[in-house]
Design brief:
about 110 residues; alpha+beta; 4 helices; 3 strands; about 45% helix
């Protein structure tokens, strides 16, 4: 029987270089948030619970950006915070989207 290469039999929807890179960025971002929260007295148990919340159902159907934002929003919300997407310019920072504890409309802040 002829053998097949792993790259021929793996499902490209499940594992690809782009998805691996997304999970690496996600883990790095979660680690930065966790370290910052530990410095403010957050417990390991609370961070572990938030990590569990960030396990996104239906991730295989999401784009890399959707997965990253959904998982980070769930993680940050699980720690009692909110995630914000901002457009940053030299003279102004515009909050485009808020996810979490205080979702709301976009705001603009002059620098």
């Amino acid at each position: 029987m002829a053998s097949k290469r792993w790259s021929e039999i793996r499902d490209p929807k499940l594992v690809n270089d782009s998805r691996v890179a997304t999970y690496q960025r996600l883990l790095a971002a979660q680690e930065r948030v966790a370290e910052a929260r530990y410095a403010h007295g957050e417990t390991v148990d609370a961070v572990e619970r938030a990590l569990t919340l960030s396990e996104t159902e239906g991730a295989e159907d999401m784009s890399d950006a959707e997965l990253f934002l959904a998982a980070m929003a769930a993680f940050v919300t699980g720690l009692g915070g909110r995630l914000e997407v901002q457009a940053v310019f030299p003279e102004e920072t515009i909050t485009v989207q808020r996810f979490g504890a205080e979702p709301g409309p976009a705001v603009s802040e002059r620098v």
